[in-house]
Amino acid sequence: MRSLLLAFTVCIFHFNVTAQFSFSDSAVRSRICRDIFVLASDSFEGREAGTEGERKAYTYIISRLKEAEVSPLVANNYLQPFTTGHIKFTKPARLIAAGRSFSWRNDFGLCAYSANDSVTALWADAGFGLVIPDAVTGSYKDIPGISGKIVLINLDSPSKLSKDTSLEAELTPAVRIANAVIKGAAGVILYNGQGDYKSRLFDFSKSDSVTVPVIYASSKVIDFIKSHPSGPLTMAVHLERVSKTYNNVTAYIDNGATRTIILGGHYDHLGKSEKPADKGAYCVGADDNASGTAGILELARFYTTHKDPRNNYLIILFSAEEKGLFGSEYFVKQMRPAMIDSINFMLNFDMIGRLGCEGLLVTAEASGSSPFWPRLYREVKHPGFRLKKVASSLPFSDQDAFYNKGIPVLYLTTGLHQQYHTPADRPSTINYTGMAGLLGYSERLISKAGSGEKVPYRKVPEINLYLEIAGFLLGYFGDLLSF
Ligand SMILES: [Zn+2]
C-alpha cells in the first residue's frame, strides 16, 4: 500500500494518447511509471501464471491496450489461453542398492517419463535396450526373466546402428523405455546418455509417462550396482503431474504492410516467495518483468500514434515464462507457416528497468541471430550506455522459441541484479529515465531494421552457445557469491 501511495505522488498520469510524442517526453516516464507501479503492486500478488494474480495483470494490460486503441490479434479477444502440463516433486526421490543410499540430483536424476511410484526388485542389464530384429547387440532375446525386474539401459547406440536413419525412432530413450515396460519391467534405470538425450529426458514440461519409475543414473551408481549383482534395488519417485491453463495477451497494429515486427515480453512473475526468510512476501517483479511489459505497452502507444506503413506490429505479452518459457513456446508452436514467413524479426523485452545498477551497461543478446545486427548496432547510436553483445540466444527468455524457429531476434536487457527473483525487486528501484532512453533506442533500431529488405536469419554456432551459457552462469553465481 505504501508503494502505491508513493506511485500516486511521483506519477502524473496521462490517459489520453493521441498526439505524437518522443521517448524523452516526461509523459512517457509517467506512463511507464504508472504501469510498473500497478503491475508490481502487492495487490497483483506477484502475477504468478495460472493464478488470480495473472488474471489481474492481464485485465490491467488489456485495459491499457484498449485505452491506446490497439486491437486484439484475434477478433474481440486479447487473450490466448493455452494448457500445459508440468511436474511437481512432492518428496525427494530415493535409490538404494546393496544397502547404500544414493543422492538425488547428485548421483541420479528423475526422467520426465517416470511414474509416481516406488519399487523394490532384482535388476537385469538390458544392454542398449533395443528391440530390432536381427540386431547383434541390445536385443532382449538373450536376457531371461525381465518381468518384475528393474531394467538397466545404456542409452548409447551401437555405432553400426546409430548411422542408420531408418532406426532413429528405435534409438530414442522413449522407445527404449517403452520396450522395457512392454517386457514387464518394474522400473527403469538409464545411464550413459548423450548430452542432448539427457536434456530431453529432464524436460518436465512434458506430461507423457509410463507406468513404472524411471531414473537416470551416473556411471558411479551403475558401476556400484553392477559390482553387487545379487541384491535388490529400491527406487522411489515422488511427483505430481499438474496441468494448468495460462493466458498470453496478443494485440496487433495492422498497417496493411506485408511484413510484421513482433514486440514481446513476459508479464508473469513468481507469486509468493518460497524462502522462509521472506515470510510469504510477494515477489512483485518490478524489473522482472513489469518493466518489459510497461515498455511494450509504451511502444504499442507509439506505433498507434506514429503510423508506420512499412510494418505491422504484433504485440505479445507472454504468460508462464517463469514456469519454463511456456507462453512463447506455445505461441511459436501455433504459428502458421504464412505467419512465420511474414515476420521480419522479433524484439524481446525482459528486465529493462535497471540501467545503471550494474554500470551503464545494456546487454544485446542474440546479436548473432542475423548478419545484419552488427551493422545495425554500429550505425544506431546509443548515448548513455555501453552495449555488450552476446551472439547466442540464451535459453532463459522468450526470444529463444522464435530464434529456434528461424526468426531473427533482438533482446535488450539491463541484466541481473541483487534484487532479481526476490521480494525486493520493487518499483522504487527502477530507473525510469534510463528505461525511456532504452525504449527510444529500441524504436530507432526498429526504424532502421524495418525500413529495408527482410532481415536475414543466421544460426549461431553451438560452440558460442555453450561458452556464452557458461559465461552467463559464471556471472550469475559470481554475483550471488558477492551479494
Ligand atoms: Zn524471471
Q: Which structural class do the helices and strands define? A: alpha/beta
Shape: elongated
Return Rg in Å.
Answer: 25 Å
How many domains would you count in the coordinates? 2
Q: Kindly report how far apart the N and C termini lie.
A: 28 Å
| Number of strand segments | 20
Structure description:
The chain is elongated. By secondary structure, the protein is α/β, with parallel strands linked by helices. The protein has 14 helices and 20 strands. The strands form four sheets. Strands 1, 2, 12, 13, 16, 17, 18, 19 and 20 form a nine-stranded mixed β-sheet that branches. The chain has two domains: 2-85 and 244-482, Aminopeptidase (3-Layer(aba) Sandwich), CATH 3.40.630; 91-237, Glucose Oxidase, domain 1 (3-Layer(bba) Sandwich), CATH 3.50.30. It binds zinc ion.
